[in-house]
Specification:
By secondary structure, this protein is α+β, with helices and mostly antiparallel strands. It folds into 2 domains: 58 residues, Uridine Diphospho-n-acetylenolpyruvylglucosamine Reductase, domain 2; 209 residues, Uridine Diphospho-n-acetylenolpyruvylglucosamine Reductase, domain 3. The chain is 29% helix and 21% strand. The strands form 3 sheets. Strands 4-5-8-6-7 form a 5-stranded antiparallel β-sheet, with no helix packed on it. α5 packs antiparallel against α9 and α10 runs antiparallel to α11. The structure holds flavin-adenine dinucleotide and iron/sulfur cluster. The site of iron/sulfur cluster has 14 residues, from loops.
Length: 314
């Protein structure tokens, strides 16, 4: 794939219906854009060749914060800065505030949306490179090649799931409201991911995340940690979100160790050694990150035991 020409079709609908109609019209090759911080980085690297961009930023139905029955609803288009600045989120769902603060840089968080963060593209040391870099190193399963450069496998890609807010929201039992062919559906957030490196999402290209719904009144206590080489601006090499709630329910979700989020559910009496064993068994990290696989696996142990201790659980 060669670096794409940016002079393509650009459409800006003002309703979900118009967005969906455009998506049907350009179904062969289009991409939705929210803040554009992920889409355009991928495009300039030659990893996105869509002919048409459908900018969702003019759709009011995708914005705002409100309490709806037993949930707190966050519009998918709210920026990460708006999420960080929201007092209700900070008080009730602090793990989300902490995760959002650790995404990229202040400038990016000013544009980047929560919905876009849940769907940001997976990363890999051998894939997120310029086109000339990949031309010389070779193309892999995720970009028109026939072998994984990281593992030598001809079958599977293990690009890393790197969203910071997804594990935080999963640990809060969040759901997403999705507009599918004009119909509203609701899913547990973890269920929208395939954990498969080439196509990491279960949603269709035309599906639109409308909002994120977090259950109210569960009184969460939480810890969020992120491993990265630079604190100023860096994708994750391991993120962990750990919550307990008033019903003694424990939920842990990790990013950066597999092609999707990896999640554990238990109760406050769960054994920390068993939890760590579980994560080490199911996380499929490979050598495709700035940190070695071995180091990241060691850090899973450190992050989980420290977080559980901080919550008074061991
Ligand atoms: C230098 C740099 C550093 C970064 N660091 C981090 C980091 O530390 N942590 C991190 O998590 N991310 C990071 N990112 C990735 C990205 O900036 C964020 O994930 C951001 O939150 C994406 O949001 P956006 O609104 O800009 O998404 P966009 O780029 O607009 O979209 C991202 C994807 O989501 C789809 N999409 C967006 N909104 C919707 C919707 N409502 N419904 C359906 N599809 C939708 C788009 O089609 C696209 O596929 C970084 C990016 C850069 C360039
Ligand atoms: S894990 Fe392998 S196939 Fe997947 S993006 Fe990296 S090099 Fe390519």
């Amino acid at each position: 794939m060669k670096p794409a020409d940016i002079n393509k079709i650009y459409l800006k609908p003002s309703s979900l219906k118009d967005a969906y109609d455009y998506a049907s019209e350009y179904k062969k090759s289009f991409r939705y854009v929210a803040g554009g911080t992920d889409v355009f980085a991928n495009r300039f690297q030659g990893n996105d060749n869509s002919d048409c961009f459908i900018d969702l930023s003019g759709i009011e139905e995708l914005k705002g914060f409100e309490n709806v029955k037993d949930y707190f609803r966050i519009g998918a288009l709210n920026t990460l800065n708006e999420v960080i600045g929201n007092k209700h989120i900070n008080k009730e769902y602090n793990v989300l505030t902490e995760a959002a603060k650790m995404v990229a840089s202040p400038l990016i968080r000013y544009r980047a949306t929560l919905g876009g963060n849940l769907l940001c593209e997976n990363r890999c040391y051998y894939y997120n490179q310029s086109d000339w870099w990949r031309d010389s190193a070779g193309y892999c399963l995720k970009c028109e090649g026939n072998i994984c450069i990281a593992t030598g496998s001809k079958k599977a890609c293990y690009s890393e799931f790197v969203s910071d807010t997804a594990p935080a929201l999963i640990s809060l039992n969040a759901e997403v409201e999705v507009c599918e062919s004009g119909e509203m559906k609701r899913y547990k957030l973890e269920d929208i991911y395939t954990c498969e490196g080439v196509n990491p999402r279960r949603l269709k290209n035309s599906d639109i995340i409308v909002s994120i719904l977090i259950p109210s009144g569960l009184v969460f206590k939480s810890v969020y940690r992120k491993l990265r080489q630079r604190k100023s601006l860096e994708f994750t090499s391991l993120s962990s979100a750990v919550t307990i709630n008033k019903n003694n329910f424990l939920k842990i979700s990790l990013s950066g160790v597999d092609s999707g989020p990896v999640t554990y559910e238990g109760n406050t009496g769960s054994n920390s050694e068993e939890i760590i064993k579980y994560f080490l068994k199911i996380s499929r990290s490979v050598e495709n990150d700035m940190y070695s696989r071995e180091y990241r696996r060691e850090m899973i142990k450190v992050y989980i035991s420290k977080s559980l201790k901080e919550l008074g659980l061991s």
